[in-house]
Amino acid sequence: MPELPEVETVRMQLHHKVVGKTISSVEVFHNKSVNHDETIEETLAGKIVADIDRVGKLMIFSFKNESDVFLLAHLKMTGQFFYVDTHGDVIGGGHSMGDSDGRGFPHKHSRVAFHFTDRTSLYFNDMRLFGYTKLATAAEVAVARSKFGPEPIASTFDCQWFASKLKKRKTPIKAALLDQSFVAGLGNIYVDEALWRAKIRPTRRADKLTKAEAALLCKAAGDVMNESIAVGGTTFQHFKDTGGANGNFTDYLKVFGQQGTVCSRCGDTIKKIRCAGRGTHYCPGCQR
Ligand SMILES: [Zn+2]
């Protein structure tokens, strides 16, 4: 499943490529992917993409001179966005995929295509059909935004606020960090990595963390997300024209998926347990 760093990486790429372009037509290959809305093509044709914003893992497209028409996009389990230029070069990502999935559009998992007047296109692929690209009103966007807390990667994220909120939570710290209405954007991988960096066990009660630990965790959460975004997330793949190396945060993971291997900090053996209903990785040697 794409986590926030992958979604943010995709958003930044698309922002760079798509903002300012005029939609010429929308092709719907599967109705479920547009929430069975038969007006989507008519509504979006001629619209100019003004911005691509994001809250949590939800992408929000807005349009020039339109205050009540938005496009919400969620990759869910297997969604991908691919931008194809006039030379056939492809940029995109989301769910991890084999090489062949980055070529030939539309292909069997393409669900929606947004064509632009400059003959470039944006494809939404989704093998399992849990994701969507759907129209929304301003009121619906406001509701969607209200479900997410602040993000540790935001420059305005307040570590003192974070620490004071933790004091009111009696759940394991892992569960608190996964709660998107509290802090948005930390998925399973990044929670485990942030807790390892802060030397805190995932099973510790949130309200029992010391001030110093909460401060370390606040910084670790932001750092781990930003570093992952910098290398393109854990599952993001990009193609021909982005240049540079294929970034992948998987190479940097210290505990996630590392059970049975040696902790790079203390030499103890990484363990995998279940916590907050999720597979959870930690080092018994250096996380307290
Ligand atoms: Zn360790």
Structural class: alpha+beta
Number of separate helices: 7
Mean pLDDT: 90
Instruction: Outline the biggest β-sheet.
Output: 5 strands, antiparallel
The residue ranges in which pLDDT falls below 50 over 5 or more consecutive positions are 236-245
Bound molecule kinds, no repeats: zinc ion
In order across it, which strands form the biggest sheet?
1-7-8-5-6
Strand content: 15-25%
Helix content: 25-40%
Tell me the overall shape: elongated
> Compute the gyration radius: what is it?
20 Å
Strand elements, count: 11
Order of helices and strands: HEHEEEEEEEEHHHHHEE
Note the gap between the termini.
Answer: 29 Å
Question: Your description of this structure?
Answer:
The strands form 3 sheets. The chain has a 5-stranded antiparallel β-sheet. It has helices at residues 4-18, 40-44, 138-146, 159-166, 173-178, 188-197, 211-230, and strands at residues 23-28, 49-55, 58-63, 66-74, 79-84, 90-94, 110-116, 121-126, 132-136, 271-275, 278-282. The relative contact order is 0.15. With 288 residues, the chain is α+β, with helices and mostly antiparallel strands. It is elongated. It is built from 7 helices and 11 strands. Mean pLDDT is 90; it is low at 236-245. Helix 4 (159-166) crosses helix 7 and helix 6 (188-197) crosses helix 7 (211-230). The protein binds zinc ion. Zinc ion is lined by residues 263, 265-266, 268, 283, 285-286.
